[in-house]
Amino acid sequence: MDSPLEQTTANPPRLDTCMTRSGSSSSSILENSAPSGPKKLTSMLCDMVDDATMSKILECQGETLQTLQSTNHSLTKFNDFSAVRYAQCAKNLENHTRLLRDMKGDLDIIFKRIRALRTKVGTQYPTHFADIAKRRQEEEAEDD
C-alpha cells in the first residue's frame, strides 16, 4: 500500500501549468507582444530547471511538509497534555499553600498559648521557674 507521502509525490504539480517552456501563455494578446519583465523572468526560471530536478524538489518539499505536519501534531498533543498537567499542579499547589497557611495560623495560636502558660507558671511559681530556666541555659551551653 502506498504511503500518503508517495501518493502526494507520485504526480507532483508542475510550475509551468499556466505557461509552456517556451514562455508563451494561453492569452492571444501576450503571444503577439514581447514578454513583459515578470513573464520573461518566469520563463527563464522555468527553462533553468529540468523536470527531474523539479520533481526532486517537489518530493523533498512534500517530505518536509509531512515531517512538519507530524511534528506540529506531536507538539499540539504535548501542549494539550501540558495544559492539563499544569491545571492539576496549580490546583495541588493552591491546596498545599492553603494547608501551610492554616498550619502556620494553628502554630501561632499554639505558641501564643504556650507563652501565656509560661507567664502564668512564672508568676505563680517564680523560684521553680527560675531554676528551670537556669538549667535550660546550662544545657544549651553544654550543647554548643
UniProtKB/TrEMBL annotation:
GO terms for biological process: lysosome localization. Residues 18-36 have a biased composition (Low complexity). InterPro entries: KXD1-like (IPR039843), KxDL_dom (IPR019371). Residues 47-129 form the KxDL domain. GO terms for cellular component: BORC complex. Signal peptide: none annotated. Pfam families: KxDL. Residues 1-11 have a biased composition (Polar residues). Residues 1-37 are annotated as: Disordered. Belongs to the KXD1 family. This is KxDL domain-containing protein.
